[in-house]
Amino acid sequence: MTAMSGNKIKAVLFDFGGVIADEGFRNGLFEIARKNGLDGGEFAETAREIIHDTGYLTGEGTEELFWKTLRSVTGIKGSDAELRDAILTRFTVRDWMLKLIVRLKENGARLGILSDQTNWLGELEEHMKIFSFFEEVFNSYHLGKSKRDKTIFLDVVKAMGIEPGEALFVDDTEGHVARAREMGLHAVYFTGKESFLKQLSVFFPDLPGDF
């Protein structure tokens, strides 16, 4: 289990939505947009900016403020509970990914989650029960910092007691992957199962099993 350039990968850090689970935030936003007669892509981008700007993503603002601002800017209808439900019900854990995570752990890799999530991640865990698969769960809501800030990657590897080059980061947002690499981590841009497994084999060529 060796990484490129001969550096041993000691830990693998996984994004949650879009990697471990289906991207519930994006999919839920598209459904909200559809019900309100809005363009899905434009609405999702607006929501992503507002969740940052209101501070909800980094624990500095409230969910109530996020939805209030999003309604004001876009004109969407629905209670906080209804809008939240549209998002949370669309996070579905990928069974093949959990199987792979178990194999990585069995082969000695340390595992962590690094997610730009609100307190919703804790709510999802109550039903999904996946935190036990991981040594550490790093969530922007509790860190007070999102993956838009590249120093978050150094914070995380320091907390795990490893060097940046000993970590592999997996994310479905290209900008996050670029920032992780800039900070010295190895990183995989997740675009689908087959391409991901092919990229992972570069770092873990002897990982057994069909996922």
Summary of the model, kept short:
The protein has 211 residues and is of the alpha/beta class. It has helices at 24-35, 40-53, 63-74, 80-88, 95-106, 120-128, 140-143, 151-160, 174-182, 193-203, and strands at residues 11-14, 110-115, 136-139, 167-171, 186-189.
Topology:
Layout: E1 11-14, H1 24-35, H2 40-53, H3 63-74, H4 80-88, H5 95-106, E2 110-115, H6 120-128, E3 136-139, H7 140-143, H8 151-160, E4 167-171, H9 174-182, E5 186-189, H10 193-203
Parallel strand pairs: 1-2, 1-4, 2-3, 4-5
Helix pairs in contact: 1-2, 1-4, 2-3
Please give a structural write-up.
It is a single chain. The chain is of the alpha/beta class and 211 residues long. The protein has two domains: 131 residues, HAD superfamily/HAD-like (Rossmann fold, 3-Layer(aba) Sandwich); 65 residues. 48% of the residues lie in helices and 11% in strands. The chain has ten helices and five strands; from the N terminus they run βαααααβαβααβαβα. Strands 3-2-1-4-5 form a five-stranded parallel sheet, with helices on both faces. The radius of gyration is 17 Å and the shape is globular.
Count of individual beta strands? 5
The biggest sheet amounts to:
5 strands, parallel
**Count of domain modules:** 2
- Read across the widest sheet, the strand sequence of neighbours is 3-2-1-4-5
Please give the count of helices.
10
By CATH reckoning, the class of the largest domain would read Alpha Beta
Q: What is the percentage of strand-forming residues?
A: 5-15%
Compute the average pLDDT.
94
- Give the ordered list of helices and strands: EHHHHHEHEHHEHEH
Q: Look up the CATH topology of the largest domain.
A: Rossmann fold
Shape: globular
Protein structure class:
alpha/beta
Radius of gyration: 17 Å
Which architecture of the largest domain would the CATH scheme give at its second level?
A: 3-Layer(aba) Sandwich
